[in-house]
Amino acid sequence: MSTKPHVPVVEGYFTEEGGAKLLGGRCARCGAYFFPKQYSFCRNPACGAPDLDDVELSTRGTLWSFTDNRYAPPPPYPATEPFEPYGVAAVELDVEKMVVLGQVARGVDVSSLHAGQAMELVVEPLYESDDVVHTVWKWRPVQEVAS
Amino acid sequence: MSDVVIIGAGMHPWGKWGRNFVEYGVVAARTALADAGLEWSDVGFLAAGNTMRNGYPGYVSGSTFAQALGWRGVRVSSSFAACASGAVAIDQARAQIQAGRCDVALVVGADTAPKGFFGPLPGVRPEDPDWLRFHILGATNPTYFGLYARRRMEAYGATAKDFAAVKVKNSRHGLTNPNARYRKEFGYDEIEASPVVADPLRLVDICATSDGAASLVLASAEFAATRADHDRQVRLAAISTVTPQYPNTYLDMPDIATDSAVGVALPERTFRDSIAAAAYEEAGVGPGDLSLAEVYDLSTALELDWYENIGLCGEGEAEALLHSGATSLGGRVPVNPSGGLACFGEAIPAQAIAQVCELTWQLRGEAGERQVEGARVALSINQGLFGHGSCVIATK
């Protein structure tokens, strides 16, 4: 296990402090959610409010679809040598009613997934540079706690 | 609004020729002009589709082609709408004619494409979704095609063999098309032996990146009436270049997330459905009137989505429609008689124009062995990154 500090691969999209969470925007006027926050204003044409609140999005959703990438993408993807295939999942967040893409967490067999199953957010390494581990959000099936 | 007529169509064959895109575009433009029996000196407006991967000349394609054909003061437009660029250029040309600013307009799209996956433009741009999706997710174009294909399997019980059947059909359609890059029949065994790129899609399920060029000559109905070759004229009945309605809850390329459906009513139609609906409304026809369609088969599975988006069948029924033979040559409504992107590969700014070239040849009865008998109404449709719809309906 690397002892290097974890740094999000992109600023302002997610955090792992206090548990993995996506960071988005919410319009105080119409209630619309946005991920990423991207702009300072609301994009609902019936609203157009000038500000969005910073919010943490729900961490669970329903799997809409998924795929398994078997070929190395072109740069700027930080592909490892040798290339490791990775899954990509599209998950509809329960509360925000929006589909968010993410890689499938390591160790999850992509062929075992099925649309409609419950998924949860995790933060994992994407790649390491000399000094830091660059992290990204990923999806994995909800880990059922034995009762 | 006065009618606009297609009086000329031409292409430079698709391939991997490795030459400057301007060379292809000029061949296509001269071919289309010759087809119309006109000269460059007869053209009052030039509308071109941009290419992002060929330097500055690609961003100012209108003036690039005006210079290449020979400066003569013609006004130009240079449009970029990703895969829909060609249709936007056609729309620009049509608008100039409808506004009475010219009688004859030339439309050109040409591309020289890199090998392999399309990547983002160079540089480090975390605020550009098209850069970010590659960097942090490894979400290539085939990743999205794989998600859409898997969705059909999960929601409707589609199989990889259904997708292969699209390839088998389109490879037969394009066999004798002189402008197609791949003229080879594919069978199921060969498709199954093809490596998986983005599960469930294999290499041969996904369209290649190609060089190529396509061109159209448009004219006002008044100008067209003065020409001798009325039988070869095709009416441009509709062009839809709509963008999505908020909230767009379908995951479109290159987005990392959709809009949120919280607190608002969903639009009456999905974005892809709305692209065709706007064209049908303008043309005053419906799906039942179509003689043929050219749809953007970036992947085999995506062709099936389009059957539903253009109303050939209901949701989840595309596989059955395909297997009924209705969308094969000789069927009720052949889809991609040209062979589609399966046989062409994609030359981005040329592709939507190439689709309309095929509609033109089909409606004239000049499509040779791939001719759809008695074609009267034809539709082409595609979708470009960042919310660009494109649909053209042409009629005899």
If you had to describe this structure to a student in words, what would you say it looks like?
The complex is a heterodimer of chains A (147) and B (396). Chain A has 147 residues and is mainly beta. Chain A is 0% helix and 41% strand. With 396 residues, chain B is α/β, with parallel strands linked by helices. Helices cover 36% and strands 18% of the residues of chain B. A nine-stranded mixed beta sheet of chain B has the order 3-2-4-7-1-8-11-10-9, sandwiched between helices. In chain B, helix 4 packs across helix 14. The relative contact order of chain B is 0.19. Chains A and B meet through strand 4, strand 6, strand 7 and strand 8 of A and helix 5, helix 6 and strand 5 of B.
Give a nutshell description of this structure.
The complex is a heterodimer of chains A (147) and B (396). Chain A is mainly β. Chain A contains no helices and ten strands.
Number of helical regions of chain B: 14
Shape field of chain B: globular
In whole angstroms, how far apart are the ends of chain B?
A: 18 Å
User: Kindly, what is the distance between the CA atoms of the first and last residues of chain A, rounded to a whole number of angstroms?
Assistant: 30 Å
Keywords, separated by commas or semicolons:
heterodimer, A: 147 residues, mainly beta, five-stranded mixed beta barrel, four-stranded antiparallel β-sheet, 0% helix, B: 396 residues, alpha/beta, nine-stranded mixed β-sheet, two-stranded antiparallel sheet, 14 helices, 11 strands, 18% strand, globular
Draw up the topology in text.
The complex is a heterodimer of chains A (147) and B (396).
Chain A: E1 6-8, E2 14-15, E3 21-26, E4 33-34, E5 53-56, E6 60-69, E7 86-93, E8 99-104, E9 118-128, E10 133-141
Chain B: E1 4-15, H1 21-36, E2 45-49, H2 56-59, H3 61-69, E3 75-79, H4 85-98, E4 104-111, H5 129-137, H6 141-156, H7 160-173, H8 188-192, E5 196-198, E6 201-202, E7 211-220, H9 221-225, E8 234-240, H10 271-283, E9 292-295, H11 300-309, H12 318-323, H13 340-344, H14 348-364, E10 377-384, E11 388-395
